């Protein structure tokens, strides 16, 4: 209950940055983590919030110390640090994180799981975020995005530019708001 109140307080302050009136619920979180398995090397969650999708990712067998979480909101980042003390948590803007990824980690990302509200961003920032994500993906890398509209919020022009594929991975009405999960892959 306390987490929901913290979420609502932040949603009132930063509605466009949070993008959803409540944290993602279990069914949608499980869909977002549906292609995680213990054999994947590098999983990054963008916009981890208070860690609902993170719980689903960890249930699929990723070791906490191998999981990389990015969250701009300082209060949420502290909650993430308390809940997942061994995870690698970056409390910074996702663009900064992606720009520095290769320098910091010297590897590619196999799976990006994004709760970032892409529709709230201006077109240039959205394209930059998506292009940087693709640049950091490994050969068979995948990008999962949650949206609250049927339309995929990952830009078509980036999909075309990088010759990517996209697929509606799932939809659930059992989420507030109802959620669509898109998969973008090489
Ligand atoms: C729709 S919420 C999803 C939160 C969580 N993953 C969940 O499903 O409950 C979006 C999250 O992205 C974070 N966020 C938004 N813009 C961001 C940015 N530019 N860099 C890092 N995090 C950002 C917000 O603070 C918020 O926690």
Task: Report on this structure.
The chain is an alpha/beta fold. The protein has a single domain (24-185), classed as 3-Layer(aba) Sandwich (Rossmann fold). It contains 8 helices and 7 strands; from the N terminus they run αααβαβαβαβαβαββ. β1, α4 (52-59) and β2 (67-70) form a beta-alpha-beta unit. The longest helix has 14 residues, at 123-136. The termini are far apart. The mean pLDDT is 96. S-adenosylmethionine is lined by residues 17-20, 23-24, 47-49, 52-53, 70-73, 76, 93-94, 115-117.
Our measurement of the CA-to-CA distance between the termini, rounded to an integer number of angstroms, reads 40 Å
Q: Rounded to an integer, what's the Rg over CA atoms?
A: 15 Å
CATH-derived topology: Rossmann fold
User: In which range does the helix fraction lie?
Assistant: 25-40%
Ligand kinds: S-adenosylmethionine
Q: How many discrete structural domains?
A: 1
**Using DSSP, what is the number of strands?**
7
Dominant shape: globular
For the record, the CATH class is Alpha Beta
* Major β-sheet annotation: 7 strands, mixed
Q: What is the strand content? A: 15-25%
Structural class: alpha/beta
How many helices does DSSP assign? 8
Arithmetic mean pLDDT: 96
What is the CATH-assigned architecture? Answer: 3-Layer(aba) Sandwich
Uncertain segments = none
One letter per element, helices H and strands E, the order comes to: HHHEHEHEHEHEHEE
Strand order of the largest sheet: 3-2-1-4-5-7-6
The CATH superfamily is: Vaccinia Virus protein VP39
């Amino acid at each position: 209950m306390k987490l929901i109140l913290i979420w609502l307080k932040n949603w009132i302050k930063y509605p466009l940055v949070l993008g959803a009136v409540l944290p993602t619920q279990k069914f949608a979180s499980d869909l977002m983590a549906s292609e995680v398995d213990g054999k994947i090397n590098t999983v990054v969650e963008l916009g981890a919030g208070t860690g609902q999708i993170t719980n689903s990712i960890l249930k699929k067998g990723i070791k906490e110390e191998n999981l990389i979480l990015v969250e701009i909101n300082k209060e949420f980042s502290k909650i993430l640090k308390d809940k997942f003390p061994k995870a690698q948590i970056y409390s910074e803007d996702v663009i900064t994180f992606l720009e520095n990824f290769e320098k910091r980690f010297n590897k590619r990302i196999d799976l990006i799981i994004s709760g970032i509200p892409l529709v709230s961003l201006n077109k240039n920032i959205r394209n930059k975020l998506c292009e940087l994500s693709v640049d950091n993906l490994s050969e068979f890398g995948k990008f999962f995005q949650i949206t609250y509209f049927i339309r995929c919020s990952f830009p078509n022009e980036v999909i075309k530019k990088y010759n990517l594929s996209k697929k509606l991975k799932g939809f659930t009405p059992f989420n507030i708001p109802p959620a669509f999960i898109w998969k973008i892959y090489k």
